[in-house]
Amino acid sequence: MVGPKSSRRPERRPGNSAALVETAVSGFFAPRLSRGGGCVCVGLSGGMDSVVLLHALCGVMPRLGAATRLEAVHVHHGLSPHAGAWADFCIQLCNGLAVPVEVVRVQVPRDTGEGLEAAARRLRHGVFAACGADWLALAHHRDDQAETMLLNLLRGAGVAGAAGMLDERPQARGPALVRPLLDVPRAAIEAYAEAHGLRWIDDESNADRHFRRNFLRHEIFPRLEVSFPGAGRSLARAARHFAAATTLLDDLAEIDRKAVATPSGRLALAAVNALPRERARNLLRHVWQRAGFQAPDTAWIDEALAQLATADTLSEVCVATAEGELHVYRGEVHVLPLRRLPASGPLAWSGQACMPWAGGRVRFLESTGQGLNRALLAGAGVSLAPRQGGERLQPDARRPRRTLRNLLQEGGVPPWERPRLPFLWVDGRLAWVGGIGVDVAFACPDGEAGILPVWEKD
Prior knowledge:
single chain, 21 strands, globular
C-alpha cells in the first residue's frame, strides 16, 4: 500500500526537460490572462501531474502580471480507503503554497449502468462546473493524450473520439476546461517534480491492470515504443489532426443548427429528419454537447434518430443519458437536463417565504391585489403537493372550471414538466397550480392583501 504522501522520486532525466512545464503553462495562459485576468482553478487530485501543474502556476502567474486568482478544488470520491488522507494532503499542500482549496465530497452511485469510473467522472465534472472560476485547469499531458486516443479508437470511436482531449473546451455551464500540459511529455513532468523536490500521492488503482487505461499504459505502450520509437508523440500528433477535423464538423453542425432552428431556438423536428443521416448524427451530437453534456455514444445517437424519424407533432419521445433527456413536443426537439421530481407527499405551508420543490423552489411573495387572497389562507390547512390526476381549476372567471389536462395542453406545458408542477391546496381545495395560475375562488381582490406564489424551476 502506498502512503498518502509518497516520497518516491521519478527517474532522473537528462537535459532541460523540467523547463518545458513552465514554458507550456506560461505560453498557454499568457494570451488568456492578457484579456484582463480572472480566476484559474486547478482540479487537484494530489497525484504528481496535478501537483506539478499547481506548483508551476504558482510560479508563473506572478510573472505574467495579470490580476488573476489561483484556486484549487479536490473531489473526494470516497472510493479508496485512502481518500480521506488524499484530501488532507491536498489541503496541506495548498496551505503551504497559499492557494485556497475546496474539498468537495461526492457519493458515487454504483447502480446507474454507466460504470463506476464513468459515474465518478460525471460527478467530478459536475463539481468542476460549479467551481465559479473562469478556467478549470486539468493536468493531462501528452502521454495521457496518446493513451486516450488509442483507447477511444479501440472502442470504435469516430473523429471526435480520435481527437482525444482538447486543450480548451468551453462548457455551457461553468468554466472552460483547459489542459495547459497537453503537449508536455510525462518525462518532463517527472523532471519538474524532481527538480523542485515535490511530493505527491499515489493512487493504488493506477497499478491495477484490470483497468483498460492502466493495461495500455503498463503493457502496450512500452512494447510499442520498442518497435515504434516516439509512438506516444506520433499518436498525440494524430489526435491534433483529428481535433482540427472535429472543429470543421462542429462548424458544419452549427450551420445546420441555425438552418433548422425554430424561433424558440430549438430544432424543428421535420427539418432534422430531412437532413442526410450523417449530418443529422453530427448535429445531434453537437447540440447534446452544446447543452453541456458528455458526447453520447453511437448506439444512443442511432436510437434517438430512429425515434425522431418516426415521431410526429403529437409524439412524446424521450431518449435519455445519465445527464440529459431528448424530447419531442409540438414539432420541436427539446434537449434538457434530467428532471427532478417532487416528493410524493404534501408539504405543509405555514407562512414560509420559500419552500423547496423538485430541485427548484416556490416563493410566496407579499402582494396587493394579486395572487391568493391572504384572508382565505388565515387559519386554513395549506400545503403543496404533486399532481395526482383528475384535478380541476378555474383560473378565469369568464370560463368554466376545467380539467388540468385541458389547461396544461392549452397552456403548452410539456408532458415531462407536468409531474413536477406544484399544486397548492387550501383545506382540501385546489387553489393554485404553478405555470397555470390561481383559482378564481381564492383570487385576491383589487386593493387587498395577497400572497403571490412563484415557481422557480431548477
